[in-house]
Design brief:
Layout: H1 2-16, H2 23-98, H3 104-125, H4 135-165, H5 174-188, H6 196-205, H7 210-213
Helix pairs in contact: 2-3, 2-4, 3-4, 4-5, 4-6
């Protein structure tokens, strides 16, 4: 495009040459056009360079988005397992509340749940931010992992504590056992896992610039 415009400008100058009575005026006119043309070429080259940088930045952000998205999809599966474990816990506790006779099968269910909870706890403690993610996002993600580990630890402690008081060998009174289970539940179960602020902060950092996104 630059060369085409140069050729067109040269042709126009040749065509205009005969309209200038004095060559000196024509030379000044050409110099004026040359300055305008040089400024325009410089501005266009800068814009092209900025456009190239912007495209590189967009590609880098898209790569970061994919890295975080893949990690978060796997993390969400861990959260789903934590939620499922709580649901199983409450189902077992509810069964104990309404049971007239304590059955061995309920204790076995608690034992199985404890095993699953501990397995998940180990997985949570092995979580790491993806090393390819930029440092600012890794720092925020580390806080998400820290909160999740505390939450998982509380779940494991709750289930293990309930299992210890629900041991058929020591249970003599269902009412007393349920009272202990209620106390453990109130004392040990965390209010919740709150990571929405950190996740939103990461997504804000990885958003595409509005002008380029259009």
């Amino acid at each position: 495009m630059f060369y085409i415009l140069s050729i067109i400008a040269a042709i126009i100058l040749v065509a205009l040459y005969k309209f200038f009575p004095r060559k000196k005026i024509f030379v000044y006119f050409c110099l004026f056009l040359a300055v305008i043309f040089a400024i325009s070429a410089f501005v266009n080259s800068r814009q092209a360079e900025e456009e190239k940088i912007s495209q590189e930045q967009i590609f880098a952000i898209q790569q970061q988005q994919k890295i975080f998205s893949d990690w978060y999809a796997s993390y969400q599966k861990d959260i789903d397992r934590l939620d499922r474990n709580w649901q199983l816990y409450y189902d077992i506790v509810e069964t104990l509340k309404t049971a007239e006779i304590y059955e061995q099968i309920t204790y076995e269910q608690l034992t199985d749940l404890e095993s699953e909870v501990i397995d998940e706890q180990i997985k949570i403690h092995n979580l790491q931010p993806p090393p390819e993610l930029e440092e600012d996002c890794r720092i925020i993600l580390s806080e998400v992992i820290r909160k999740t580990q505390i939450y998982s630890d509380a779940q494991a402690k709750t289930v293990t504590s309930v299992k210890s008081v629900a041991n058929p060998e020591i249970v003599k009174d269902l009412g007393e056992m349920n009272k202990k289970i209620k106390d453990i539940t109130i004392r040990e179960i965390p209010a919740g896992l709150f990571t929405a602020r950190e996740i939103s902060a990461i997504r804000d950092k990885l958003v595409l610039p509005e002008d380029d996104a259009r």
